[in-house]
Amino acid sequence: MRITLKCLLMSCSLLIAVDASAQIPTLAKCTRSANLLACVDADGNAYSVNTVGSTIYLRGFEVIGKRYWAQTSSRYGQLTFFTGLASDGEAWVGYSRRVGWTTINRFSSSGGSSAKFTCSRIAGC
Question: In the chain, at which end, N or C, are there fewer CB atoms within 10 A of the end residue's CB?
Answer without folding.
Answer: C
